Structure formats: structure tokens, C-alpha cells
Amino acid sequence: MNESKSIPVSSSASSGKMLQAMVGIGVLCALLIVLTYEGTFDRIEQNKAVALEQAIFKVLPGITQTEAYQFNENNAFSLLDSENTDREIIYAGFDSNDQLVGVAITTSGQGYADILRILYGYDIEKEAIIGIHVLESKETPGLGDKIEKDANFLENFKALDVSLNENKSELNNTVVTVKNGTKQNPWEVDGITGATISSRAIGDMLGLSTKRWVPLVFKNKDSFKIQKVEE
Amino acid sequence: MADNNKRNAGFLGSIATAPSTDEFIKGLWRDNPVFVQVLGMCPVLAVSNTAENALAMGLATTFVLLMSNILVSSLRNFIPKQVRIASYILIIATFVTIIDYVIQAISIELHKSLGAFISLIVVNCLILSRAEAFASKNTIGKSILDALGMGVGFTFALFCLGAVRELLGNGSLFDYSLFPANFQNWIVMILPAGGFFTLAIWLLLFNSMKKKE
To answer: Would you call B116 and A138 a contact, using CB atoms and an 8 Å cutoff?
Structure first.
């Protein structure tokens, strides 16, 4: 008698209680996440800014100072006037004589595991990419992450040709990744065996990005000037 | 006999009301999550390619394990049985998101090297199994000790794998070169296959040690 009474009681909690528990835990979890996000936001942004600045100095060897420029609707560049802009930003690097060395541009694309975000340095005088740095990557450790570590692969980006045609309106050749060991031209990227998709993604990203930005930057190269504060 | 005593101490420890150090010790040795229970193999095999990655992943997992055990244990009388798994997953996912932000705030470089594996802590069966098998039935004090023991045991096991793999696969430990320049790196040790080899050898060693005891 007792048993038959106890079965329905012990077998189910009321729907209200279940809902209460789930909603309660959901609210608590949401609160914890939002608090952590708010608490770490400034620090993470600061870390990202430091990492980006270090990366700019890495991809444009020889520079001593850098300025951020925004790309405006009239196809021209101007000094970044507000941090909270939704405009695209590129970074100009200057040497100790205040001469423009080149610009650093960020680009992203689909890698093997997730979206890859990289920064590359374009030397206007040499008309070449002179360095790359991977900003965000979730590529497989030991395989795909060779795009950041493999010395032979990084050698590709010491002088990767992105020269413009006579009218300076478009690139002579599009950057492309070729099979490991078959690189013959200065605009080709020698791929990595065992990281085929990741290394091809880098080539494709650079190909697309340089096609768009290099003619624009070259045309507007006089707008990148170090701003001196008059005293 | 000594073995029997130890087992009894463990049994009594788990039913006694006061938390006992046995809850902590069992995760380190007798019920080590990797070497005995063989749980959470995805990060064990994937992120143990260097000692630093192994240690960071172990500590991140320990944090999630500890916090989820505390919360599950304190809410154990409030969560109905029917929605417990969904609740545990929600709690675990929350702490994984938190540790993800915290690691980014500490170092972007470290976050980059752990990559996708931080998010994968959500589906680490070690954490869910401790919530379900232990924290949901025990007091907060015991659950904390259990989480710390299991977490340290997991970190220790990951470090054992990471150190061997980095040493043989890269010739270094914590990025310090330890072998002469002419040492030929065993590339296979950094690749997934190396994870399986190293795990098998550690399991063999661990089991033979336990047998001798």
C-alpha cells in the first residue's frame, strides 16, 4: 500500500520545479558569464592591441613608429579619428627618418579548423610582401600550426612579389600557394606537406587581400605621412 | 593487507560525513582519471604535444572541474533528476566560457596555443562524470576535495605525456633545448600517433607499478 503511494511521488518532480531549476541555473550562468566578460573586456582588448602592435613591428622590419589609418568612402585613407569606427583600418610604418616603409594590413579567411586572421606587411618601394604574422588560428597543433612556425614556409614572405602593372591599377600576378618544392616564381608561396589546407588558405587570403588593397595603397601612398605636433 | 586497509579507508572516507583527504588522494593515484579511468582522452591526446600546453590545459580543466563540482554540489537538492544532465552541461559550459575569457586576459599567446581545445573542455567526460557520480550526491567540502584530486591527477597525467612528447619530438622541455644540436627529433611524437604511443607506455608503467604494490 505504502509502495504504491510512494512510486508516483518519487518518480517525478513537478513541471514547475523543473522549469524553475532550469531557468534559475540559466539566469545564474548568464550572470556569471556577463560579469566575467565585463571584467576581462578591457584587459583582453589591451592584450590584443599590444599583440597587434608587436605584430606590426614584426611584419614591417626596420620601422620605429606606426600610425593607424582608416579607409573612407571616397577611396582614400585618413588618420584614424576614433577607436570605435566601423571603417576598415590599415597601419602605416615609418622609419627613424619619418619615411614611410610600408603598410600592415589584416585579412582573414577560412583555414582548416576555423577562421584564420593574419597581418601582412607590404613594402611600397619593393612592391612586395615582407612579412606575415598569424593573429588568430585554431589550426591543428603539430600540423596546421606550421604556418606560424615552419621556417621554410615563413621564408616565402620575405619578398613575395605583388608588383603592379604599368597603369598601377592591378597586380601583375595573383599570389598563389603551390605544392611544396615546386615554387618557381616570386609571387608563388611554397606550401607545406602535412598542412596543405592551412598553407593554401594563407595564399588565397593574401591573393584576395593584395588584389584589393595594393593598388589602393599605392595610389594613395602620399597620404601616409607622419603627423608632427607643432610646438 | 596494506592494500585492503587502503581500500577500506577509501570506502569509509566516502560515506563519512566529514571530508577526508582520501577524496583528494584517490584522484591522484588509485582512481587517476587518465591512467586508471582512461577518461577525457580528447585533450589528453591532442594537447599533450608540449609540456606547457599540457600544464595549461590541465589547470584549465581543474578550474572547470572545481567550479562545476562546487555549484552542482550546492544545487544538488534544487535540481530535479529529470533535468540534471542539461543543468550540469549548462554549468560546465559557463565555467568553460569564463576560463576562455580569463586565459585571453592573461595571455593571448597562451590562448592561441591552446586553440580549439579550451572550448572542448565542455565535452570532457571527466567533468560530467564527476558532477553526476560524485558532486550530485556529496557535500560541498567533499566535492571540492574530489575535484582538486581529480584535477591535479589529470594535470599530472597530461604533464607526464607532454614532457615525454616534447622531449623526444622537439628535443626540448618548456622550450629549453636539452639535447645536442645533432639530435634528430622524433616528429611522430608530436603527431597524434605519438600521443597514443606515449599513453600506452605510461599506462603500462602505471599498471605494473600498481601491480607491484
So the answer is: yes
